[in-house]
Amino acid sequence: MAVARLTARSGFLARAAGTARTSPSPLQNPMSQVSRAIRATGLTPRPVSFSTSTSYSCASKPTSAPTTDPKSEPQTDAADHTDRYAAGLRLNKEWAAQTARDHPELFPTLASGQKPQILWIGCSDSRCPETTFLGLHPGDVFVHRNIANVMHPGDLSSSAVIEYAVQYLRVNHVVVCGHTACGGVAAAMGNKNLGILDPWLLPLRQLRERNLELLSSMTADEAAMKLAELNVREGLNVVKQKGVVLNAIQERGLQLHGLIYDVGSGVLSELDTQDSEEVIRARLTAFQTE
To answer: Which residue ranges have biased composition labelled Polar residues (predicted)?
Structure first.
């Protein structure tokens, strides 16, 4: 058995060594309670739009030397429209003015405080801006993001965010969201030394090892997608161990959700993460004392 497991592990890691590509996953349609609740705000969801102002090109064949004087080529500086920081400052003024016209009550309301309905735990990936792809507004979502949306049980940062959001902001929903083509997941598929990322990704690599038999039966792409889903479920398990979360579930019906965001389509899919009644009862009574 040990030899067979070692063989499976070796084959799996060999397939996982390449960059994982995204493949569709048979997940549930997210138009369920969480999606309806997300949109049950006092503001009209704004449409999601995508900019295609930046383009990239690749020469059809290599060139040995530039055909023009480099000094005559246009230079990019902080004022150039291709500089994302400079463009962001300019677009911010346009966005603020337009938002104030469309929703004159929004900024004065936000200035008086926040009352988000959702705590969102997601990945730091720049392609996964939750408020944008949910079509919501500032003030709707309280957010914690990190590399590969990994939930360390003893992590002070995520624990503080969860407690503040659940106990003081009294959010109605806690979401753990992974995504396709996740670089952190791809890194965790192998054992390459990644410096400071090694201890951070350790729970994800341990999750891979615990599910090695399942993942070894898949292609590298399928295994990466499955590991992303397993990571969401594991993250929810960590959230469910927080006393403040258990109390909120029991006292006011706090709901937990697991999602996967497809960066290739912009679509969210909801995982089936509901526990049985027996598991829920056992979890709720675990910390109770006589």
So the answer is: 20-35
State how many domains the chain has: 2
Is 128 known as a binding-site position?
Answer: no
pLDDT given for residue 141 in this prediction: 99
Residue 92 burial by CB count (10 A; 0-12/13-18/19+): exposed, middle or buried? exposed
CB distance 269 to 259 below 8 Å: yes
* Helix (H) / strand (E) containing 258: strand 255-262
Residues 223, 125 share a domain: yes
3-state secondary structure of 226: helix
Tell whether 99 and 170 lie within a shared domain. no
- Same domain for 194 and 126: yes
> Which two three-digit tokens encode residue 168?
């003081």
Q: Which of 134, 119, 143, 133 is nearest to 254 (CA)?
A: 119
123 assigned ligand-binding residue: yes
Which residues participate in catalysis according to the annotation? 123, 125, 127, 179, 182
What is the rounded distance in angstroms from the CA atom of residue 6 to the CA atom of residue 8? 5
Find out whether 177 is annotated in a ligand binding site: no
What parts of the chain have a pLDDT lower than 50?
Answer: 1-7, 18-79
For the chain, the C-alpha Rg in angstroms (whole number) is 23
- Amino acid 253: pLDDT: 96
For residue 261, the model assigns a pLDDT of: 99
Predicted local confidence at residue 83, as pLDDT: 92
Q: Is 173 annotated as a binding residue?
A: no
Coil, helix or strand for 179?
strand
Residue 139 has what pLDDT?
A: 98
Q: Classify the C-alpha dihedral 98-111-253-229 as positive or negative.
A: positive
User: Within this chain, do residues 107 and 222 fall inside the same structural domain, yes or no?
Assistant: no
Task: Give φ, ψ of 215 to 5 degrees.
Answer: -65, -30
pLDDT per residue over 160-169, tens digit each? Answer: 999 999 999 9
Same domain, 103 and 240: no
